[in-house]
Amino acid sequence: MFSGRILTCGGLLFVLNRVAPPQSADPAQQIDRFLRRAATIHQFNGSALIAEGDRIIYEKAFGEANIEWHLPNTVDTRFEIASMTKPMTAIAIMQLVQEGKVRLDAPISEYLSFYPRATGDRITVDQLLTHTSGLQQDIAFADDPNNVPAVVPVVNSDLLSNDSLVKLIAQRPLRFAPGSSYGYSSDAYAVLGAIIEHVTRMPYWQALKTRVLDPAGMTETGVSLLRPIVPKRASGYAQTFAGYENAPHIGVTPAGGLYSTLRDLRNFDRALYTTTLVSDESKSRLFATRSVITAYGWKTSEERRPNGGTRKILRTTGGLPGFANLLVRIPAERRVIILLSNTRDLVWRLDDFAVAINHILDREPYSLPKQSAAEALGEQLNKGARGSAVIANFRRMDRDTANYSVDEAELNRLGYYALYTLRAPADAIEIFAANATRFPQSANVYDSLGEAYLANADTTRAIVNYRKSLSLDPKNTNAATILKRLGVQ
Fold first, then answer.
1. For 287, which DSSP code?
2. 243-246, strands of its sheet edge to edge
3. pTM (two decimals)
4. What percent of the chain has pLDDT over 90?
5. CA-CA distance, 339 to 331, in Å (whole number)?
6. How do residues 66-91 score in pLDDT, each as one tens digit?
7. DSSP class of residue 21?
8. 457 — alpha (psi -120 to 50), left (phi > 0) or beta?
């Protein structure tokens, strides 16, 4: 069980040293070894279920549902599943399509009379489902430059009706002309929820319960509103190099407003093999392989197999400041991998975990999780280590590929942690410089190194590194802007 010690970010997994599992090895034991290792090095705090057909291969919980009280996660802990709500919203829409009450090619304004015609006549239901509508990403995000600051706390306090929320969404400028590009949009799924409300003439959450949750046997799934008391609900934690902190609540919408459990999500997976929720024709649309990253709530890909064949992989993910979740379906094997976590790490690891678990089940080589070099260095910085000692340890870890992984983005975050949190620009320079040496073709690391030199009042070296960054990436407008401000052509 997670001891409650300060946690810091982990790194990319499965870089080297892949080993073939013995043919006689029990997959459940190997999965347990893998996830125990991940939990031990603070890369997984949650619960996992792996099943094939009617058989549950593995089900176990790790870490704590409440770190402050040291309350353990269990297999029936309720986690906020965030965007894993989106596939259920898409299913409700497809049910209405089957019933002839909604058309995929119809514009928003056909179902929402209050939606401004200037955009409501141009955006179709299908574009909302496929993230090609041009709507902004998420009205609940405080760092979205298109958000009105006063609106964000109102949205995240769950004080708005769905219609009120959509009216605010409709006022935001489009990112691109509808249908002309792709841009992930939770706002689009909030609009879909409003369409469901108006067509069914019932509140969205009631419609979802009636149409999706109850038929699928999801009796432990509900709306993750901030105020109600929910038995066995996990608290959410955000990870920083200084440790975990309580994560802020994000307002519930049809884009991401449910909590659920391992068994309920397995019931959802099983229902998708039947016509309980939608017809086979609708499923062919829901699970179609597309050029866009995600559509209809699913990320769909074709995996090439060692025998030359392919198999379809269906993924749905959910992330909030305090939660990270993944459900992977492999229809050819009737396999499902469900990973639910109440900690949002600085690096998304769950896809790597699922890859390794699939390799275990397929009797293929896989790697155990490796300790993050950036995490270890962060712990040293927090204990007072500085300068050359930290970099010497980094070089040792970089050579020890059996136990440590080195990731450019993680090291960059560590540099900014030293620069702005610890207010140690000399240490930040050391870290950014080591990152530039390790990843010499990355424009971003030179940009960051220039920023650290500038913060340390070393304009000459700042200019050298901004120029290097710009030479590697001529589109780096940040470097160009700062060089111009410094009077450099």
1. T
2. 243-246, 237-240, 343-344
3. 0.91
4. 85
5. 18
6. 999 999 999 999 999 999 999 999 99
7. P
8. left
